[in-house]
Amino acid sequence: MSLTLIHSPQTRSSAFIWLLEELEAPYELKRVTIRHAGQTEGLDPANPHPHGKVPGLIHDGVFIHEQTAIALYLTDLFPKNRIGPQIGDPKRGPYLTWLAYYSGVAEPAFVSAFLKMEPPRGTAGWVKVDEVMAYLIKTLGAQPYLLGNDFSAADLLFGGTFNLFSQSPLLPKSDVIRDYAQRCVSRPAAQRAQAKDAG
Ligand SMILES: N[C@@H](CCC(=O)N[C@@H](CS)C(=O)NCC(=O)O)C(=O)O
Questions:
Q1: pLDDT at 163
Q2: Which residue in 30, 58, 62, 85 has a CA-CA distance of 20 to 30 Å to 2?
Q3: Is the C-beta atom of 12 inside 6 A of ligand 1?
Q4: From the CB of 67, is ligand 1 less than 6 Å away?
């Protein structure tokens, strides 16, 4: 089997090194450059992503992109470590829900808050960041991980993001979120991934 993660250090693709480490998957990293607003405009021809973004994954010649698609794809491909509930598991539905919520609700809320371009509530499926955070704090105040007692790849997306933005004024200061992020990134696979990220 051949698996290549298209990666750029300290970006959204970093969490996917972590995921591959969690899954004990064999993989190679292909480092590419990405655009940085106001700095670099050109697309890296070495990156097959249609918009030059990371992460991307090439599995036996097939290209997969978008974080939640890659997370689901990999946890289905490597079910052994049980961080992605499979079809038939009652946690499969909540797992898919949290993955979709990450890309469809949480990221748009975080990014629009960061850009200070928040549309009015009730617009086009969009939810304001304070409502997203209140929901997450309520959920994670009652249980250690999004699916209950067990860590899943959904926590990797949320926990990794919270860890990355732990100092950001955008996110409310919350012990629940701080402890959750710490719980996620203190996993040995996350530590191994950090060492491989830039190197
Ligand atoms: N919708 C994409 C977003 C990926 C993304 O925006 N990645 C950033 C890195 S953190 C990037 O590649 N930025 C360069 C650009 O937007 O051109 C996904 O979920 O995978």
A1: 87
A2: 85
A3: yes
A4: yes
The domains of the chain, with CATH numbers, are 3-81 (3.40.30.10), 92-188 (1.20.1050.10)
The angle subtended at Cα 63 by Cα 80 and Cα 163, nearest 5°, is 60
User: Which of 12, 156, 157, 164 gets mutated to test ligand 1 (max ligand atoms within 8 A of its CB)?
Assistant: 12
- Vertex 104 angle, CA 60 and 10, to 5°: 60
What is the band of 118 on the pLDDT scale with cuts at 50, 70, 90? confident
What is the pTM for the complete model shown? 0.96
> Ligand 1: which of 8, 14, 34 to mutate, most ligand atoms within 8 Å of CB?
34
**Is the C-beta atom of 34 inside 6 A of ligand 1?**
yes
Q: Which atom of ligand 1 is nearest to the CA of 65?
A: 20
Answer for the pair 57, 5: CB distance below 8 angstroms, yes or no: yes
pLDDT surpasses 80 at 49: yes
pLDDT beyond 90 at 165: no
What pLDDT does residue 172 have? Answer: 76
